[in-house]
From TrEMBL:
GO terms for molecular function: phosphatidylglycerol-prolipoprotein diacylglyceryl transferase activity. Belongs to the Lgt family. A 1,2-diacyl-sn-glycero-3-phospho-(1'-sn-glycerol) binds at R140. The gene is lgt. InterPro entries: Lgt (IPR001640). GO terms for cellular component: plasma membrane. It is a multi-pass membrane protein. Its EC number is 2.5.1.145. This is Phosphatidylglycerol--prolipoprotein diacylglyceryl transferase.
Amino acid sequence: MILQAIHWNFDPEIFEIWGHGVRWYGLMFAFAFFFGYIIMKKYFTHDKLKEELLEKLSIYVFLGTLIGARLGHTLFYQPEYYLSRPHEILFVWEGGLASHGAAVGILLALWLYARKINVPYLWILDRVVIVVALGGFFIRMGNFFNSEIYGIETSLPWGVIFERKGETVPRHPTQIYEALSYLLIFIGLHFHFLKIRAKQLNGQIFGIFLVLLFSARFFIEFIKQDQVGFEATMKLNMGQWLSLPFIAIGIGLIFWVQKNKKELQEHSKS
C-alpha cells in the first residue's frame, strides 16, 4: 500500500539570497495578493472607483491578514508559550499563522477601510472575500510545499508520505483538499457576484462565503492531524470550534439579506 502512495520530499526553499532563503510559501503568499489585486482592480473599474483606493485597500488587507494570522496562532494555539515570550510574537519568519485569526484581522481592517473611504462595510466585504477565497487556495498550496498541516493516516491511493517531516506512512493531503475547496468557492462566488451585483444585495456574497469556506474547513478538520497537543482530548478541535461562529454568522446574514431584499435594493437607488 505504501508503494501506491505519493512520496513527498520537496525542498520548501527555492533559492537563497544573501543568506536568506526564498521559500515557496512566501511565493504563494505573494501570488495570493498579486492575483487578488488584479481581480479587485476589475471590480473597482466596473464600479468607477479610483485605483489609488485599491492600493490603500491592499495595504489594509495585507496588514490585517499578517497581524491577525500571527496573533490568532499565538493566542488560540500556543498562548502559554507566547504570553511568556511576547517578543517572539514578532518572529513571523519562524512560522505560525492561523487562518481564523487572519479572518478576524481582515474583517477589522476592512471595517477601518470602509470608514476611511466612506463606503458600506458589507459592500466592500462582498468583493474582498471573493479574492480571499482565492488567496486561501495559494496559502494552502504553500502549506503543501512546506509539508505542514497534513492529515491522519490513510490507505487511499493519493495518500502522501511527507518524508521531510519524518513520516513513513501515507497521510491525507488535507492542504490539497482545502486548496481545491477554496478554489471552487472562489470560482462559484466570482460568477455569482457577476450575476447579482446589479441587484445591490450587500452582504449576500459575504454570507455565502462564510458558510461555504468555514464549512469546508470544519469537515476537513476531521481528517486533519492535531496541530497542538491539547487538541487530542477534544471532540472538536480548535479549528472546528473557531469555524462554528463564522458559519452561524454567515447563515444569519443570508437570511437577513433575503428578508430585507427590497429595502436593500431601494436604499442602493436612493
